Amino acid sequence: MKYKKQEHAQIVATIGPASQKEGIVRKLIESGMDVARLNFSWGNSEEHTVVVGTIREAARSVGRHIPIIADLSGPRIQEKSGHEFDIHFKGRSDGVITAKDLRDLDLGAKLNVDYVAMSYVGSEADIVCLKKEMAVRGLNKPVIAKIERREALENLDGIIAAADAIMVARGDLGNEVPLETIPFVQLDIIKRAKKAGKPVITATQMMLSMTENPMPTRAEVSDVAFAIIEGSDAVMLSEESANGKYPVEAVSMMKKIILEAERHEYKPVVRRL
Question: 0.70 exceeded by the pTM?
């Protein structure tokens, strides 16, 4: 996911209970997974250690390198219907890094993960603080800033400058801004990240129906395609690959959509005066 010209946009797949066996991981890679994401909001250090080993062994077996993202939990409150940002962290001098995040950074350093994703980034200072904590642990890897708070939108240029990559985290972002504005917020983030030369991932509910169904909806196909047309360097599967019934099919379908979107990518006609 380094910012260089790729043959195709990449697929980030979250590895979870439905996809953490080596045989399934191998099929995900063969179907088009380019990057594996571990959601540190779930599981424990022993489980994550096993999964990292499984991903690397599966990648070796097919002759590929699959980078691993350690996605930190951040200050979230778990609820029956999901989670939300812990508002008590607003204004704290130590930013949004929690004690759990620090323990997970220790684990990330031990496992030598390839990327660290920071949840609920509010400003450039949060990224700077995280990078300091990573440096202390010898974890000198790129940081992905997850844009999912209104405050992050207000400080977007500074966050883009400080981070190594950007994620349009539409799930929590939908709790911060009116839902009807999400497509336009997404496009603005992508444009500004691309202008700064930073990779951008579009994430959350891209093919959510595939947690239960072997095929996505027409609307989901369009969502993935337009994320690519808008300039996303990667698109991400969350529940679809972590807990869904059809993780391999979800990756395979996402790959097909990416290839078709790139084949039809809109190029404006330049007219002479």
Answer: yes
Helices 22-31 and 45-61: crossing angle in degrees, nearest 10, is 50
For the domain spanning 10-77+92-263, the CATH number is 3.20.20.60
Cα 236 to Cα 119: distance, rounded to the nearest angstrom:
15
Q: How many CA atoms lie within 13 A of 159 on its CB side?
A: 30
pLDDT tens string, the chain, 273 residues long: the values are 444 445 689 999 999 999 999 999 999 999 999 999 999 998 899 999 999 999 999 999 999 999 999 999 988 776 666 666 766 666 565 678 999 999 999 999 999 999 999 999 999 999 999 999 999 999 999 999 999 999 999 999 999 999 999 999 998 898 999 999 999 999 999 999 999 999 999 999 999 999 999 999 999 999 999 999 999 999 999 999 999 999 999 999 999 999 999 888 655 444 544
CB 214 within 8 A of CB 246: yes
List, as one string, the DSSP characters of 158-217. HHHHHSSEEEEEHHHHTTTS-GGGHHHHHHHHHHHHHHTT--EEEESSSSGGGGT-SS--
Burial class (CB in 10 A: 0-12, 13-18, 19+), 79: exposed
Contact 123, 158 (CB under 8 A): yes
Q: What tokens were used for 150?
A: 């209104």
Alpha-carbon distances, residue 61 vs 26, 54, 56, 120 (angstroms): 8, 11, 9, 36
CB 253 within 8 A of CB 217: no
Radius of gyration of the chain (CA): 18
Q: Where are the domains of the chain?
A: 10-77+92-263
